[in-house]
Specification:
By secondary structure, the protein is mainly alpha-helical. Helices cover 79% and strands 0% of the residues. It has one domain: Up-down Bundle (Growth Hormone, Chain: A), CATH 1.20.1250. It has 18 helices and no strands. The relative contact order is 0.17.
């Protein structure tokens, strides 16, 4: 296996562990310890993801010009600091400020990793390699809640201690990211231009799917843990449920290569799965039923990422792949930012279960539209683009 792939996989694994350690606990910490309302949870999620609308474009330009390993290392350093600062947060505005920093750091994580993988992959191996990378990150995100539940139950750790540990795990990932700065493959790129950015607009159906899926994903990351806690799930229950969520994602990614043989059908099924998981969450209140919802959500969230990126990259000239990756990640940012703040406001005024019914209905609509535009959800079979 390519050495650079191994290093980026290790980096993804460690960052995933850190995210899994602190991510599911942060909404519960903000609500129960700091006293945040659901609307404020939505604003915290918005603050976390709003930088991801703009910074991936900025980073995407850098991907075409600078060493991707250095960009990744910058992200790791910023991320470590922002997560550590959560351990000393005393108010909602403080958490918001620290999550803005996390959002900036995240923009220096995914795009450089995707660029590194894309540069060393050939033809059909790209979907598999991106899925493998996502699998390593997701494995970490699955291990993180398991470690968190052990620390909470077995060692009586506080939220703040777990945030500190999560920051130290991020620091450990700096080793592999710095090694990636060596022996950078030379890839010719065109100079940045606005016309390159506009190319993402050639994929309207992919953009619609991305925004729905990432908005829903943003809700699960930013608000869902607090919702589960209000539905009588203990903090350890929430950690277990997110472990199941991670397991579903890993199993899905393990077969991503096979599912890629019929991209459009798989993506449509993924949208239905996300909608179903959200719909189930509206009606149920037991850990078994929530586990079923998260299994469906794990499948849907995991498969849409490698397949939609493949659709775009197979129809894009390699010379502007860095810019396109940045634009693609910006679509993530739009969804991630809009989902939490929308759900937070809906929760505040119509009840904490209302967002899941609303996004269930939206998901059915997106799925039906995707069926009518199915041909647009297939990658190019011409590997010479």
């Amino acid at each position: 296996m390519n050495r650079r792939l191994v290093l980026v996989y290790i980096t993804g694994l460690l960052i995933g562990i850190s995210y899994g350690l602190h991510g599911p606990l942060l909404p519960i910490f903000a609500k129960n310890i700091i006293g945040a309302s659901y609307a404020e949870l939505g604003i915290i999620g918005f603050a976390n993801f709003i930088p991801y609308i703009f910074f991936p474009l900025f980073v995407g330009v850098f991907l075409n010009r600078f060493n991707n390993g250095y960009l990744l290392s910058i992200g790791v350093i910023i991320n470590s600091a922002s997560v550590y600062l959560l351990s000393i947060a005393q108010s909602v505005p403080e958490i918001m400020g620290y999550r803005v920093i996390t959002g900036i750091a995240h923009a220096f994580f995914w795009p450089p990793c995707e660029a590194i993988i894309s540069n060393v992959s050939k033809g059909k191996t790209r979907v598999r390699n991106i899925a493998t990378f996502t699998g390593f990150f997701t494995t970490g995100f699955m291990i993180g809640p398991l470690i968190g539940s052990i620390l909470l139950e077995g060692f009586d750790a506080t939220y703040r201690i777990i945030f500190e540990i999560a920051a130290y795990v991020l620091v450990a990932s700096l080793v592999s990211s710095l090694i990636l700065t060596k022996n950078r493959p030379i890839v010719k790129h065109e100079k940045f231009s606005l016309s390159s950015l506009k190319e993402i607009a050639r994929f309207p159906q992919v953009i619609l799917l991305l925004i729905y899926c990432t908005a829903s994903f943003g809700i699960i990351l930013s608000i869902y843990p607090a919702f589960l806690n209000d539905r009588t799930m203990t903090v350890v229950d929430v950690e277990i449920l997110f472990f199941i969520f991670g397991m579903s994602r890993i199993l899905t990614l393990a077969v991503a290569g096979k599912l890629a043989k019929n991209t459009s059908l798989t993506l449509i099924i993924a949208i239905f799965a996300i909608a179903a998981g959200l719909g189930i969450s509206f009606f149920v209140d037991s850990i078994i039923e929530f586990a079923l919802a998260l299994v469906l959500l794990g499948f849907g969230f995991s498969i849409f990422f490698p397949l939609t990126l493949e659709i775009i990259l197979t129809k894009t000239r390699p010379a502007i792949s860095g810019t396109m990756i940045g634009a693609y990640e910006t679509m993530f940012g739009i969804g991630w930012a809009s989902g939490p703040i929308t759900a937070g406001l809906i929760s505040q005024f119509f009840g904490n279960d209302a967002p899941y019914l609303v996004f269930f209905i939206l998901g059915i609509g997106v799925a039906i539209l995707s069926i009518s535009k199915r041909r647009l959800l297939e990658p190019s079979r011409n590997t010479n683009i």
